Structures
1.
Amino acid sequence: TIADTTHWPPTFGFGKLATTQELATLDIDIRPDGQGLPAGSGTVTAGKAIYASKCAACHGKTGVEGPNNRLVETAAERTENYKTKEKTIGNYWPYATTLFDYIRRAMPFNAPGSLTNDEVYALTAFLLHANNIIAPDAKINAQTLPQIIMPARQYFVTDDRKGGPEVR
Amino acid sequence: TIADTTHWPPTFGFGKLATTQELATLDIDIRPDGQGLPAGSGTVTAGKAIYASKCAACHGKTGVEGPNNRLVETAAERTENYKTKEKTIGNYWPYATTLFDYIRRAMPFNAPGSLTNDEVYALTAFLLHANNIIAPDAKINAQTLPQIIMPARQYFVTDDRKGGPEVR
Amino acid sequence: AVVLVQTAIGKTVQAAIPEGAFIHDDPTKKPGPLPSLLGSRSQFEKPVRLPSDTSSRTPLQDLYSTLTPADLHYERHHAGVPTINPEAYELYIHGLVEKSMKFTLADLKRFPAFSRICFLECSGNYRSKADGKITPQGIAGLTSQSEWTGVMLSTLFREVGVKPKATWFLAEGSDAAVMTRSIPVAKGWHDAMIAYAQNGEAIRPEQGYPARLFLPGWEGNTSVKWLRRLELSDAPFMTREETSKYTEPIKDGKIRQFSFDMDARSIITFPAYPVQLEKGWIEIRGIAWSGRGKISKVEVSTDAGKTWQVARLQEPVLDKAHTYFRHLWQWNGNETEIMSRALDETGYRQPTMSQLLAARGESTGGYHLNPITTWLVKQDGQVLNKPDR
Amino acid sequence: AVVLVQTAIGKTVQAAIPEGAFIHDDPTKKPGPLPSLLGSRSQFEKPVRLPSDTSSRTPLQDLYSTLTPADLHYERHHAGVPTINPEAYELYIHGLVEKSMKFTLADLKRFPAFSRICFLECSGNYRSKADGKITPQGIAGLTSQSEWTGVMLSTLFREVGVKPKATWFLAEGSDAAVMTRSIPVAKGWHDAMIAYAQNGEAIRPEQGYPARLFLPGWEGNTSVKWLRRLELSDAPFMTREETSKYTEPIKDGKIRQFSFDMDARSIITFPAYPVQLEKGWIEIRGIAWSGRGKISKVEVSTDAGKTWQVARLQEPVLDKAHTYFRHLWQWNGNETEIMSRALDETGYRQPTMSQLLAARGESTGGYHLNPITTWLVKQDGQVLNKPDR
Ligand code: HEC
Ligand code: HEC
Ligand SMILES: [Ca+2]
Ligand SMILES: [Ca+2]
Ligand SMILES: [Ca+2]
Ligand SMILES: [Ca+2]
Ligand SMILES: [Ca+2]
Ligand SMILES: [Ca+2]
Ligand SMILES: [Co+2]
Ligand SMILES: [Co+2]
């Protein structure tokens, strides 16, 4: 560490304690183990409707067409190696919880933070189904979402490079 | 020196030779030995008139009143130690050539570089006389100006401090 | 040296300053504007960033050294630049800590402060163009350098009492993307800063005003801007930016994640497209940097990689900082290729694109590409970027 | 951590982001402006210089480290800021040289370049106010720091062939004062630069655009701006600025001339007037510099000079550069005086005003005053400058 803290007081006393209420407001992240997931739930059918009205304009009718990021892998693509195709939730997302977290915090792009938790569950269900990951009648909630094993999970490895002559 | 020039070519070949004409245009400085002084001359009387029309508005009717820099020392002040009085040509200028150089390059403040050489000689004569340095009928030119010994010349010493603990 | 002439009205005029010099715009003939509250660039200088929808690139070819003027610092954000009132600003730290706390901007500034000059670089900092008509700004303009000042994160970790079992923390921004990244706690203790100043003054809005995380040497996205919250945890959060984005396919069908360090890189910024080169002595100039420490050496080739010479490095060479290099070259007018490669103190040497792809596989995606940049110098003096493969 | 509530229409709303957060100016709820050509300051930050008719002072108390943003660099000029077209710019070098030459701006940029971070300071950089209501900017704002880039003057001396008997050179500007100073040739060979860039970009108009002389560590006036001509000579020219101005009365009725080096100095910039101080831990901060080399130490006293502690210096400590110092202090609410003093590598220690006047005599004029600045901390937290005598 860069600072020499030897002569520092144990505490400077700046800042205030954060209240539980303040943290409840801000602490919106979802962990892969499901920590942070709210009550509520959503279905593929409900998600399909919301998707059509709030998302399709940017991500395409079926999540394939754009103009913005491709979200869905087509049936034809499913047989190919992931490297040869465009990144989608189906082939490049290692955790289903990330989908809930990201949609809730950042989408729709023009009105982030405007969705209800049930809407986010439903959209998550719809997109997971569209990528052939869950069944058409699956119901997604705080218990079921973290259980889902994503197809791309197996590919992810942590960078272990530490410098040195080897190019990796 | 900071650059390591060991492997440098003897010349880079950038830039052009300056012509004599170009240098004649720019080389307007005057040295204490008179180098750089142009032909021409001026008298106290001529200078007084030019001063009244082009300088007095800023330096005062007699060079004492301002509002801008005081140029002239009053007769009363002449007996005092220079340290106790305001700086003037009479008590703080070590070389008369500097006066010609500075007036020509920088005055009048609102129209620098607009004076003829004769005007500058005349103004120099007037201000030297006003400070009791030359006689009222003195004529100033390239030969006489460098000869003038200024009262403040004797006070000037070159800084010889080189750092170290002593405060000087 | 002063020439005198007689005018019609018989006056000696000061020919030392000739006719031409009396024209209205001779700066020696008229006092200029007085001292002012704030300066601005000369009307003759108009350096600008190169903006796209998602980023804006620093004009590397227009800069003369390693500091980036703040208004030319590259931008990359995921939902635009938020406007944050510094009076309302608060940074929360919670999770695996003894005391969950919040700090106002004034609080942050009261803690012992620290400054360092460091580069910042987006890990997506690589572009090419088939016709070679691309500037250093286009190729590698998503890196800039500033002097950053703030409080060391370790100081705040001490203040809240980070628990020993905390191994990762989430950093969250208050932009419309509510940007989040998971960072190992070790980086937080080591050299992470909460920066509130840049080049002496308050951080600029595009760089995270009023306060951001700053992680020396790490991919820019991890230095979360407009920082509002840090949550200490025992595992990474697997946010979208560290899974769907900022990861890269490597060999054996794998995807590399948490690739934080920026690999050593360099680029010649002069001569470079669109410069028209003249024969004779040329000082080749550029910048080199490494996220893993100091630049130990920059090598320059002026014969398409056949031989390499050691360039001069501008002192002081700082840790995780753009380092300016210069190398004298006499161009005889023949077509050639010039290139630079950086070496860092870990012994790493900047590779070619072929070496990178050989090591990582062909479909490597757009992140962490640091190949040697080659400039093709044509006989007519045109300088073009040579496509990397 | 997320609280759920049922709305009238039966929907689960995301209470995690409460009512307040939905207001129009919640930055997380609406994308911000896209990337742009040029950045600008946050609307909440308005640092400015303090202008008079002849100068404009850097807001030292608003800066967080040693670099001065170019638009806040101090100004001092004698006839306003000239506008110079870089295409028309030429630098002449003549006099005692083998070849009298002129160089365009493009020529200057083709020579091997050099960069360094250095302070610049006007030798008239001292003010006080009887009521103590004066900021660091008011007291010592005629100093700033930049990274300067240009060609070493020694490189140009080589090119024109300076003759051995040349001992001085005249530097002349193209402002309306046609500013001139005589400089020893030795300084030209040693570390003088012709600078054309400042903080990475072209020099700003107030700092001499498009090119200036830059003499590290020397009084600002000698670093002639808007440089148009250098004349090599065997004697100084005794210009008005080195006789009537920029000289100072010393003891024995003498006037000291050619006092080039800026003596070591420091000033506490926080806490300083008009800060209202709060009890508790305070990081005392400031800058120290010396025209004679590196700062070796800064000592801080928080008990009116009775005892002195060694402050932390921000690394890297550079030659002839502002060096940031920081010192932790716990203020118990009693009235006291705080002050700093700089030591440089020659062994010089910044004096008090009394020591200066004892050494130079009472009527020392306004140049080269570098006394210790004392801040009076009143019980109510008011911080006032203590008049120096
Ligand atoms: C106005 C345009 C727009 C709308 C409407 C929109 N998105 Fe997006 N979406 C984007 C953009 C742009 C991005 C990429 C953002 C980035 O990279 O930072 C994105 C990214 C995403 C991603 C991440 C894709 C990836 O490759 O990582 C998901 C998932 C997503 N959107 C889902 C949704 C959902 C669900 C909705 C509807 C509730 C929605 N979007 C509505 C523009 C939009
Ligand atoms: C519009 C105002 C103005 C006018 C007109 C003017 N001056 Fe000045 N003069 C100044 C100012 C302002 C200064 C100080 C400039 C500086 O310090 O850079 C000055 C400085 C001087 C000085 C140097 C004084 C010193 O203490 O070093 C001399 C000598 C001088 N003027 C002579 C003249 C003469 C001769 C004329 C007429 C031809 C003239 N001035 C007209 C404003 C004026
Ligand atoms: Ca959480
Ligand atoms: Ca949001
Ligand atoms: Ca001359
Ligand atoms: Ca002039
Ligand atoms: Ca991508
Ligand atoms: Ca004075
Ligand atoms: Co990465
Ligand atoms: Co001096």
Note: Chain C touches chain A through 67 residues (CB under 8 Å).
2.
Amino acid sequence: MSLFYLAAALFLLGTILLGLVRVLRGPGSGDRMLAAQLFGTTGVTILLLLSLALEASALVDVALVFALLAVVAAVAFVRQHGLPEPPDTPIHRQPPDTPGPERHHDDR
Amino acid sequence: MIPANPEWLPAGSAGLVALSLGVAVLATAWPRQAHRIGLLGALAVTAWVLGLSATFLHAGPDPETAATRVALGGWEAPLGLMLQLDGLSMTLLVLTAVVALATSLYSLGYVHDRIERRQFWPLWLWLWAGLNMLFLSGDAFNLYITLEVVSLSAVALVAFTGTAAAVSGAVRYLLVNILGSLSFLMGVVLLFGEHGVLDLVLLEARTEAGPTERMAAVLMTAGLMLKAALFPLHVWLAPAHGSAPAPVSAVLSGLVVTGSFYLILRLWMGVFAPLATPAFGILVGLLGVGALIWGSLQALRAGRLKSIVAYSTVAQFGYLLVAFPLMLVDPGAWRVVVFFAVVHALAKASVFLAAGTLQHAAGHDRLAELGAVLRARPRTVFALGLAGVSLMGLPFTGGFIAKYLLLEAGLGTVLAGSLIGVLWVLAIAGGGLLAAAYVLRMVAPAFHRGRRDAGEAVSPWMDWVPLALATVAALAGLAGVLTLNTLALTPGAP
Amino acid sequence: MIANALTVILILAGLVFFAAGTAGLLRFPDVYSRLHALTKADNVGLGLVILGLMFQAGGPADILKLLLIWVLVLAAGTTAAHMVAQRTWTHGEFESDR
Amino acid sequence: MNALLVLFDLVLLAGIVGVAWRCLASTDLFRAVVLFITFGLLLALAWVRLEAPDIALAEAAIGAGITGALLLVTLERLRSIMAERRSGRPHSPPPDPTGPHALLRALHDPLPEHRTFLPALSFALVVGGLLVTALWHQPQSVGLEPVVDAHMDVSGVDHPITAVLLNFRAYDTFLELAIVLIALLGAWSLGRHDLIPARPAPGPILPGTLRLLVPVAVVTGVYVLWAGSHAPGGAFQAGAILGAAGILLVLARPRQLPMAPAGPLRLGISAGVALFLLVGLYGLAAGHGFLGYAEAWAYPLIILIEVAATLSIALTLVALFVAGRPAGDDT
């Protein structure tokens, strides 16, 4: 049986690594955030499977903590403090910014 | 007078840790009174350290039994962790107490803002407690944690003024520190994996020149060199000092950097002693020569007072590296090295405090425009000059004694038939000349004709403390025999 | 024996949903449809696996813990998907993050 | 079983290294943050495989609950500062040259762009190769396990990790608590924090989730703290969970939360170290050595210290998340 759990966990780990393609490609930050959310759930599942495969019941607690805090990053993503109210147009890729005036000088 | 009892030493060491931690915690919880708590705490900790050193000197004429080991929580190593007090740590504790007391008094004048005071004192007291704990620690993992306490509070203090330049310097310092700490920790892990113990004494008994020890030695030494700003890993030092408050610069160059160097010395005298080969010694010595030349040249080129002093730290630490090959030939030379580090710390701290007074008065520290203030503040310039003379190593100062002893060790190497010894002697002698050049650069404007302008008023603390500390540094030569005798009470060291 | 068979079947079914969710995340054309795909993996995939694991649980406390994990992930997945959709709707899909 | 475990470990290892590399090489900060969150998840799995569930628990709480949120919020502040710099006109609130803004600016100032990839890669390969060689020669050391096991009956608790952390090497743990505190003091020394007004919740879903999650988080935190005496768990993990719950409240609060008063907050964050130190001093005075306990009192004292430490850690983490010092500290 534990062989089966382990194989299932390995399969799920594989889906995480595949899903990384979405994080790398994007294109929007929403896509990346969604991928992270899916990884969190997959991670919980892997932990539950490993707890049976390795016969370590403490891993269920680890999974519980992951499940409990899975939403924090997403909430931070949506409700950052400095976030301006919805702008008129979506922000598009900006040119690289110019050095600011307050750049300090080394005396060397 | 109450006779000193050697049985007080264990409680005295644990008590020192508890006292300095208690002061820090109290100041953290009650920031409104932090400066008063800090002043009382500084006096109490200094008095405690001096009492401890008196007891120590009375107690242990026998170097093999002179080390006091304290099992914290009653658990002996290898299960628990031990504090260790010997001649080396005692010397550095006294040095720390003197410099830290001076810094605390200076800070009473320097950090006068009611709100800044509340932020400054807790961090500073944590830093001091961290240094005390570092010098007392006898356990490899505990050393890592005390190093973290020291570095983290030092980083916070560098960023303390909150300006962009200060924060930028602090971030660099933080990254360097993290890298150094992780490297050190990795070495600790390797040693633990190989030997299964963390206690330094137990480790020392088990180490031999194997691949694990070599790797651990490389990792730990590199990490500590990074933290000690030893050439060529010194690049963070000047930016970190550039905008740090003066008392912080003094402690950073005087004590924090010395703490990392202490650890390098302690490890190579103990755990890594079987690994030291002549070729390795020569490599370190060459790095030292490089540090002397490069640091001095940068100090001669720098345009700001504090940068000059910061680069002089890089240069002066070159001596400590040059001393390494000497120690391989004459094992007893390590005591001279420590004495040199002590004198350097005292002198460097007073130079930074004096520079801080000048900077505060003038509102900047650009050397070219500092003449008027320099001419109007003879007391501070005298402190700067006196400490500078000690850095140069002119006769009768502590620096002179230290360099004389170093030169003696160097000549001993030459006489022992080592050709490269000539290079070390030349470096030690030539380094003094370079130091003279940059010290004179700092004080020379005071002797030019021109306008005098005392600048902004400074508190009496800022006026007198640098002078007092510079005097201590200059007179430290008188304590040379005492220091060397104290250091002799280090078991296991020649 | 039957419990083991049920566990295997349920977990396998759950894995199918995870695979489908990942495929959807990779292959679907925009945020909204991707979101749709992966919430299925969240809810049903984990639900099936947990259902399967319940047959192996040691006691009622363990079963409750497993159920709690599922409920928490359900809540997190729902909230996250809702909020990401909302943000994308108000801020635009191709917002740059440089 | 064994072959499959090795395969699992190899895939995990490849994932960790790959994610770390892409995270470091990413030019898009948001992508780097998401990769870092993923990195934390894989790291927790690695701790599980290294049979260190205590650390996996801490990594779960810190990685999932705190670093992700911290990085995302920092990124957003950074973005608004950069937007303000580009447009040349100050964004609200007016820039404060000495506040946390200075830190963000300093962090954003790019380091000189040398071509660092090849040197970095070769350095990493050399160090990694040497490390592997050193580890290869290492004996199968049992470390301190037998010594710890021999003393478990006098430690006051049933979980060896907790026994080491709070009894045998309590000094280290005390200093670790102090380090968390010093980090906060450092953040506070940079500037003051003016609470940014809360924004109305965008619908019923977020408040509803909060109502479910926060009580469960509190219960879980207490459970993890309690579990620490006999199973993986303890003050750091519980403090991180409670801290994450606090961060969630700060992030999602629909209306103005009252500002924490400076005095009690100071007391709260230093309660852990203060109590620990008092117990340590008592041990010194009573002859058990600094930070030592009488055997009979070990369990209650450990629990007492852990409760205070949990509260302090949770408060400190939330305060670190909020960043600047409370305004009441300045009067």
Note: Chains B and C do not touch (no CB pair under 8 Å).
